Amino acid sequence: MNSELEELYQQVILDHSRRPRNVGEIADGAVHVHGDNPSCGDEIHLHVKFGADGGIEDLKFTGQGCAISQASASLMTLKVKGKSRADAGAMLSAFHDLVTTEVSDPPKSLGDLRLLQGVRKFPQRVKCAMLAWRALEQAMEAGDKEEHVSTESA
Amino acid sequence: MQQTNEVNWQAIREDFPILREQIHGKPLIYFDSAATSQKPCAVLGALQHYYEHDNANVHRGLHGLSTRATEAYEAARAKVAKYLNAPNVDEITFTRGTTESINLVANTWGVKFLREGDVILLTEMEHHSNLVPWQLLAERTGARLRFVPVQEDGTLALGALDSLLTPEVKLFAFTHISNSLGTINPVADLCSAARAVGAVSLVDAAQSAGHLPVDVQAMGCDFLALSGHKMCAPTGIGALYGRAELLEAMPPWHGGGEMILSVQFERSTFKKAPGKFEAGTPNIAGAVGLGAAIDYLENIGRAAIFEHDTKLATYAHRRLEELPGVRVLGPQERGGLVGFVMEAAHPHDLTTYADQYGLALRGGHHCTQPLMRKLGLPGTTRASFYFYNTMEEIDRMMEILENAVRFFA
């Protein structure tokens, strides 16, 4: 078996892509961001509910796409739920580093997200891994309840 | 169709140095010729020969080298005309490819002749290159777009043609072979249906020109667009065939050198077609390369190429349907490509997987987003074949895909 494929598609990642966690919508008081990756058709609807303190109280997503985009979204929701905006923002930037640069010792705070490190050997798949995170970034910046984010600049 | 010769397909592979490449340490299996074909030594050599012996600007130098370059460029035009059985060599305009050819028609014929209320008829299986230029034109002129539906089996709903081809239809543009479904459309019938209501027809021959005999007179089309790079020629060269009478009535598109007769400060007069559509220094080497590609393809024979490609595609279709959770799109009778979806893996995961084993597939929407949306698919995986591919490569593809099913399931 090819080792780079094994590294990219670890069992935890395949498991999350087959059975993503936190799938659904949040009806009340949530910011809704639609993110897509027009070059490949990956798509996510992310609903984020912010608490009174501005932290991420709850988040859910629906979407379709490749294993990497689905697993990244699923793992992200588990990781940032209950976090402050600052912590979530730091995680976003740590995750971006993880999938784009040679990080020999990724921060432990990323937890299972570190399993997506294999993406860095597949530059054309970075967008897939980042889609949910770009949507989260947008949600945190959004004043509106409806936002659209794309991996391609308009 | 002409009699097919016995062709030594294995020996033909030797003409393509790139087929000896390794990808991730594995022998390359190139199944992405619908995106772009590989180039034989005959074409690579023609480019080198041109630059080493004939290179100069065309049509205006009075020196000997310019004459040679002009002759090489115009000889290539004559080859394209003969290849398409165009009645007149002046009916061939060199462009950058199919996309530019279609944009040329939209921006000249379309802008001059389309009015508010007119209808542009397309099909639901068009590549974005035969859709977006018409959307832009519709926006500009007030014309409306209308579409021939694609049926469940991947063929056009020809029964709907009568009700769609109303007198308001001024243009009917359609693909010869679908780049995502492999469907071969009955182009001669479509052209004659267009003619019956006085509509102009345009054939997108990007996927067909290098794969089967294409005869514009037998088809009865008004315009035909092709890309060189999908038929063994370099990128950046293509052609537009247009019926002389239509070309004559069309205004120029790009202005500049080469396309003029005389220029005054306030106004200019223009050459006849194709000169008036070829502003600036053209892709001379590209045209020479296209001419060499045509010689190369004609030497093998397009009927033989078509037979070979469809044999591969039919075999791949049958083998793919044996795989659990795999659905092949498009009809049984198809051009040299197979699009499919696999339950276990998204097209992008599958193509990433295949690539690690040297197998070049294409995953995605194949520039047919509206069609994918209609079919309810995020995209497909496509294997597209050309005459340098073999049955053994398809067997190898199947081994890789069988492993992929196990890997992702």
Automatic annotation (TrEMBL), chain A:
One of its GO terms (molecular function) is iron ion binding. Residues 9-128 form the NIF system FeS cluster assembly NifU N-terminal domain. It comes from the Bacteria. Pfam families: NifU_N. GO terms for biological process: iron-sulfur cluster assembly. InterPro entries: NIF_FeS_clus_asmbl_NifU_N (IPR002871). Transmembrane segments: none annotated. Belongs to the NifU family. This is SUF system FeS assembly protein, NifU family.
From TrEMBL, chain B:
It comes from the Bacteria. It catalyses: (sulfur carrier)-H + L-cysteine = (sulfur carrier)-SH + L-alanine. GO terms for biological process: cysteine metabolic process. Belongs to the class-V pyridoxal-phosphate-dependent aminotransferase family. Csd subfamily. Gene3D superfamilies: Aspartate Aminotransferase, domain 1, Type I PLP-dependent aspartate aminotransferase-like (Major domain). The keyword Transferase applies. Its cofactor is pyridoxal 5'-phosphate. GO terms for molecular function: cysteine desulfurase activity; pyridoxal phosphate binding. This is Cysteine desulfurase. Pfam families: Aminotran_5.
